[in-house]
Amino acid sequence: MKLGQATIKDIAKALNVSASTVSRALKDYPGISNETKKKVKELAEHLNYRPNAVALSLRKSKSNTIGVIIPEVVHFFFSTVISGIEEVAFANGYNVVLCQTNEKFARELSSIETMLDNQIDGLLISYSKETEDFNHFQKLIDLNFPIVFFDRVPEIPNTVNVIVNDFQGAYDATKHLIDQGYKNFAHLAGPKNLTISKKRMEGYKEALEDHKIDINPEWMFHCPEGSKEESIRIIKTLYQKGGELPDAIFASNDIAAAGAMVALKDLGYQIPAQVGVVGFSNWQFCSMIDPPLSTIAQPGFKMGEIATSLLLTCIAEKDTSNKEGKTVILDTELLIRQSSQK
Amino acid sequence: MKLGQATIKDIAKALNVSASTVSRALKDYPGISNETKKKVKELAEHLNYRPNAVALSLRKSKSNTIGVIIPEVVHFFFSTVISGIEEVAFANGYNVVLCQTNEKFARELSSIETMLDNQIDGLLISYSKETEDFNHFQKLIDLNFPIVFFDRVPEIPNTVNVIVNDFQGAYDATKHLIDQGYKNFAHLAGPKNLTISKKRMEGYKEALEDHKIDINPEWMFHCPEGSKEESIRIIKTLYQKGGELPDAIFASNDIAAAGAMVALKDLGYQIPAQVGVVGFSNWQFCSMIDPPLSTIAQPGFKMGEIATSLLLTCIAEKDTSNKEGKTVILDTELLIRQSSQK
DNA sequence: ATCGTCACCGCAAACGATTGCAATAAATAT
DNA sequence: ATATTTATTGCAATCGTTTGCGGTGACGAT
After folding, report:
1. Nucleotide nearest the Cα atom of B34 (by C1')
2. Quick check: is B339 in a domain?
3. Is the pLDDT of residue B1 over 50?
């Protein structure tokens, strides 16, 4: 009745056959006469019959739906990943149910629960900044439930992950600043518990070490918020102290970099003449701000595509108890714009 | 077995009662002894029983899932709307399944089909640029299927819509440029078949008329792509022709405005001294570019929230044959930045 | 006339949960 | 001791679809 959607039973009744016959006829099973098949198919066509996906899910314990859990939708990089996910999912007949956690651990837990209740076939997840305990993931992994982590991946064994080469990206960015002749380096780092923050910091440090440049631990700042205001605050405080000051800033995200630039310009510094800045992610605004911000481009769309492909493979191979982990590392790209060209 | 999820039957078997008793005990139906209730609840708790949402959907013809169809995820405004949708849906125990159409009509059709197959309880939609025929919507409306349009709404009767006051926003933007003393106006309009494009153009025109300023039809350009490159092309072509030229540009979206600014700066024009520019939407980059772009802020998050609330009401009232349409119009806000202050 | 072999189709169980109705036993009333 | 109520539970159908197995009738073979 609702939506006027015809069911197999309706067809069966109208044709005076059984539901099983209709089902088989529609799928060209052997053992159904051509005449019956023809009648069934014609009526199905005429009634615009479409199988009820919910009934199928129940029957087959397969929903053709994947869950995506993401910290924030309003985030250039993540929205790009979602886009990639959407494309591959759609192309393979999968639906995507989406939850944003708003960086809340509790929300992450409850979203996963609901999704499992809804019998998703697999899960794509980038966990929240608050997440420090990975038991909820471990349980799923132990049950051999298909799950792929992207961008923010937990440090537990045998997981399937897709990340970018944060270390190399940070290394490239820092080396670029070094090559430009900057001498004193500061780093605006990401939230402490995220691996990406650590990796970027490591890349930053290693580039400095490789070029015999001192690392000043007082010039490394964690930015838990990742907001423009936060980095404006940090940079202003730093530069207003006077004394020796950094002439190069590598920020682990573009927003922080943009904030740093605002603060520096406010304080009368010339970018890139006096201070060089490089960000991370290549948000849309990077090419539009003044000066245009050099940054490390992350292939978000590709990440979404690959993560989804991997997940679909996991789903397909669920039974084959292939429990080994796998990590795909995507290359980043240094985009040199004005903010870092001395 | 899969996921180790216990079912009602498992509990029933373990306790040597019937499934119906378990079901009733769990929901505190009358007619079940306290002792039985206690045993059932304890075991359910212990087994971490969670009802299978798919089975419930099938039984109750209600999935607690809403579908969202959106042209693009990687779009500041739309991602903001999604965020609002997510929040309200989550707060009310609804799941969100998402499809992006990439502005393709065919994809819009097929996404709606799949969602209906999956028994979504309602649909939130902002249709694609290619969509010119609204039959697929009309069918759903005729069937009294809960559907709410946002931002891009079709011109058919008795629909429930949430839009921003595009007319007023455009009027405000244009009037602001007039007030600043600009004299010759150009408009970068959106895709022709979108109502928002029309409304914004009307607002633009009316502001000019109200102030006795001539409307030059040759200075109104439709931007089907809405890309930076497109508007760079258009503006460069225009300004390289020479002769009388506009000294004020109102663009119906920020990307086009940003493109116009790039083109103008390339050609050596001073913004805002020689040419004023105002955009539409308040993308994140507006406050970061040079000069900061004046624009019309759209309450995307609020739009998502309201659209979802309306949809949930429609779902709740589905049976009461309340077929009348409704359109919520949200106010925009003129954000005056440097790009338009002569 | 009996048997085997097909071609074709329906029954019923299953997926997990809900719910109207009937059934049983115990308790109370007469 | 019988009738009636009450408390507690189970049966079976239902949602829409799939699928193993069994059943029917026609046909040719012996």
Report:
1. D8
2. no
3. no
